[in-house]
Amino acid sequence: MLPGVGVFGTGQTVRTLVPLLQKEGFPVQAVWGRTQEEAESLASELDIPFSTNKTDDVLLHPEVHLVCILTPPPHTRQIAVKALGIGKNVISEQAATLTDACKMVTAARYYPQLMSIMGNSLRFLPAFVQMKRLLGEGYCGNLQVCEARVYGGSLLSQSYGWAWEELMGGGGLHTVGSCIIDLLSHLTGCRAVRVHGMLRTFVCQSGPAVGIRSVTADDYACFQLLMSGSVVCSVTLNFNLPGTDLHEIMLVGSSGRLVARGTKLYGQRASMQVEELLLSDGGEAVGPSVRGLNGMVTQLRLSFQAQQDRRSWMRHPVSMAASFEDGLYVQTVVDAIKRSNRTGEWESVEVKIQDVDPNHNHRTLPN
Fold it and tell me: Which residues of 66-91 are buried (b: 16+ CB within 10 A; e: fewer)?
């Protein structure tokens, strides 16, 4: 028995996600937009029966038991915490700030029977699922170095919005880098202990004259992560390149390497002269994020199907998903990279959370 879904947001990811949910049999019952006009237009386009610009109208909808939050980062925490508080399962994008991420973790800890996972679909990309399995089987030997490169076009819309503002969660480091940071931790089983990074904003304005508005979010990021176990990661993000996007993750060990280019996986052992194609699932046309989203929705169906209650779910099918605590770790790393950009120094990564009741009565969580 699949739960009814309520979706927050009207962007391109929503337009991709909703048809995938519907294809797998999820009844998408409601959509929220910033304005009523945006919500109604998307509902008509995607055949969603209810639309609104009021948060509570979706959260309290009697047929909505799973909430997908794909809003701008400043809205994420408020919706996620409230949804969990009234008994809804939640899939959410990254929060805007470290404080917001802490509050989301606290809410998830208070309601452990509910699903509370991050929406990083790259974890479900078949190339990375296979990469993680091969790493576990020792394909590369002892892991030593990870390198990630993501190149693409501008992240900015023509008109001013949250994506222009670093403090609102805009920029390549937050929107794309957070997914890469999470993915590297997932693949290696390690977490960053120290980071060093540099951020730049090369496009300071977008489109026609916009008055005094200027871009504060980064469109270029280059950072290094020193992971537990002495694994070294190097990441480059550049969103000022015309032409075809590039998405490459390479893991190098003592006896081989694995490389995911787009949706394909390649490998080369130390004894081989050339690399071999290990996986090609035909997802090149849609790209890694969409192909991963497809895999994530399939696992969601497996998690919810055959349950007697639409709120019930099995953990195993979505066990590879990022938790809210993983989201807090990622936000901590992002903040440390921003500090490093300001100081020019290596910065430590220390994940901390103050256990405060999300309903603000300040009860301490039990041990």
Answer: bbbbbbbbbbbbbbbbbbbeeebbbb
Q: What is the pLDDT of residues 117-150, one digit of tens each?
A: 999 999 999 999 999 999 999 999 999 999 999 9
Nearest to 224 by CA among 193, 200, 248, 196: 196
Tell me how far apart the alpha carbons of residues 56 and 313 are, in angstroms, rounded to a whole number: 24
Q: What is the 3-state secondary structure (H, E, C) of 178-197?
A: HHHHHHHHHHHCCCEEEEEE
CA angle 238, 241, 245 (to 5 degrees): 85
Residue with tokens 């960053």: 192
Residue boundaries of the structural domains of the chain: 5-120+289-324, 123-280
264-281: buried (b, 16+ CB within 10 Å) or exposed (e) per residue?
Answer: bbbbbeeeeeeeeebbee
Q: Residue 128: which of 272, 227, 251, 299 has the closest Cα?
A: 251
37 pairs with which residues across the strands? Answer: none
Mean pLDDT of 331-349: 97
Return the axis-axis angle of helices 12-23 and 288-304, rounded to nearest 10°. Answer: 40
Least Cα distance to 248 among 338, 184, 315, 160 occurs for 184
**Chosen CATH of 123-280 out of 3.90.940.20, 2.60.120.280, 3.50.20.20, 3.30.360.10:** 3.30.360.10
| Calpha distance 147→331 (Å, rounded) | 20
In SS3 terms, 145-174 reads as EEEEEEECCCCCCCCCCHHHCHHHCCCHHH
What is the Cα–Cα distance from 300 to 224, expressed in whole angstroms?
A: 33
Alpha helices in the chain (DSSP H): 12-23, 36-46, 55-59, 73-85, 98-110, 126-136, 172, 178-188, 288-304, 324-343
The pLDDT of residue 314 is 95
Which CATH number is 5-120+289-324's, of 3.40.50.720, 1.10.3720.10, 3.30.300.30, 3.40.50.2000?
Answer: 3.40.50.720
Entry pTM: 0.93
pLDDT at residue 337 above 80?
A: yes
